From TrEMBL:
The keyword Signal applies. It comes from Actinomadura vinacea. This is Peptidase C39-like domain-containing protein. InterPro entries: Peptidase_C39-like. The keyword Signal applies. Residues 87-222 form the Peptidase C39-like domain. It comes from the Bacteria.
Length: 252
């Protein structure tokens, strides 16, 4: 299976320390939940000691697009989105090395009005070893999204900055929701000096944009270099996994 079809897992052991950034509230509750659930998760979910250079997760988690019901085409509705918009999020840092998908999912779900911890999501998604595949994550996300008449899907074309920005403008600017994006951690500009192996899978949150500047605002749950970042849509598209945005649409 080509490397470009692998999905994120997680990249470092973290402790969620309280911090505040403009427009963002950083929560420590999920770290406490993770500590309580960690003993029940068993050895497969145990965090590794943080080395001098952060250890990358093992590779090989297959990325498989999972469809969800579609409604009005996002291309049409994104045109009505404001020129810029930032969804208010509650930022979190992943409390285990392979919890980037559950953590990013927790942040996203809170913008749907669903408060569920990263520890609970990791358990429901059966996150273990290298991390979480889209096939594991999406049924769990959609179980929470369905009562809100929303659905997540993967596999959309985000191969250019323009295409990615269109998706973000719809989810953030029209729906006012944040969502999850699979990326390659080693290619993110804030990780250039971290020494990650090539194609280290990771998941981040996309929650804002500026159409005129062609930039996208993201939250990276890996604390060492994460938090809030603004990146050009073209660059973010280039470091994203193929079809790796968990696009949100209303259900019919």
């Amino acid at each position: 299976m080509p490397v470009s079809r692998w999905i994120a897992g997680g990249i470092a052991t973290l402790t969620a320390t309280a911090a505040v950034a403009t427009g963002i509230v950083v929560s420590t509750a999920d770290a406490r939940d993770g500590a309580r659930d960690g003993g029940r998760a068993g050895a497969a979910g145990a965090a590794q000691a943080l080395p001098t250079q952060p250890a990358a997760i093992p590779q090989g988690m297959p990325y498989e697009p999972v469809a969800a019901p579609r409604s009005q085409p996002a291309l049409q509705q994104a045109a009505a989105a404001p020129g810029s918009y930032t969804v208010k999020i509650t930022g979190q840092y992943q409390s285990k090395n392979n919890w980037c998908v559950p953590t990013s999912s927790s942040i996203s779900l809170r913008t749907l009005g669903v408060n569920v911890s990263q520890a609970t999501l990791a358990k429901k998604m059966k996150t273990a070893g290298p991390g979480t595949t889209a096939r594991q994550a999406l049924p769990v996300l959609n179980a929470y999204a369905k009562p809100k008449h929303l659905a997540y899907r993967t596999g959309d074309d985000i191969s250019t900055g323009t295409k990615l920005l269109t998706k973000v403008r719809y989810d953030a600017g029209v729906l006012h929701r944040a969502t999850v994006l699979g990326v390659w951690a080693d290619d993110l500009p804030w990780n250039t000096k971290q020494g990650f192996p090539n194609h280290t899978g990771h998941a981040i949150v996309v929650y804002g944009y500026n159409a005129s500047k062609k930039t996208i605002t993201v939250w990276d749950p890996w604390k060492a270099t994460g938090g809030k970042h603004t990146i050009s849509a073209a660059k973010l598209s280039a470091v994203s996994q193929k079809g790796g945005m968990f696009v949100i649409n209303p259900t019919l």
